[in-house]
Amino acid sequence: MSIELNQKYPSYNNLDGLFELHVTVDCSDVGAFSQFCQKMDKPKLKPVVIELPYGENQKQVMTSNWVVGSYEKACGILQQVTKLVSSQGYSISRSKIEALASTKGVPETSEQVTTFPESNYFEFHAKVVIPDEKMSRIEELSKLALSKNAHLSKNGLKQEKPGLNARFVNLRVSLKPKNEAFKLRDELVQALNEADWQTEKVQSEYVVYDSNLKYDQGWM
Predict the structure, then answer these.
(1) 129, 142, 178, 187: least buried by Cβ within 10 Å?
(2) pLDDT(111) > 70
(3) CB 185 within 8 A of CB 26
(4) Is residue 220 part of a domain?
């Protein structure tokens, strides 16, 4: 898929706001990759390791950085990051551009959804903080998530306070406008809270570019 989607889909030219960029790599030495990211200043890169309980790629190592502005600007910086990562000898498995759901131009109606590629999707990440004594029930959380078409993940680089653990409950919604996607998000959060899995925060995004949708096969 070409990153220059605004040439085929004029609606991309209306996107303006906050974007998160990711470049996923094949990596056996997370420490060295983290050091590379932390040394970068322009653009500033953060290393991220996502651990999944199942799927073809259960350990996903990637960069993260934020861009304020247009989709075109986000494209330019993603291409810059891709070149930097490649110059260090890393093989790139995937690149993504995620617009925060509050970004101007995100599809609000079913008609607007059709002006974007069918491969685009809303994605929600609900953070659940779990005490040590409750970790024996993690399978219950996984089953509840699955009942809402959501799946668990873990941040492999971040440690919570002693005695606490974190999991993310991830929901992906395709071919729906913002209000319908948010309704499914709210239903998920309500189900989690009612089952005594308290959500700390929820990040809401609209993925406007994903170079490798199959990378999450067996998980999403």
Answers:
(1) 187
(2) yes
(3) no
(4) no
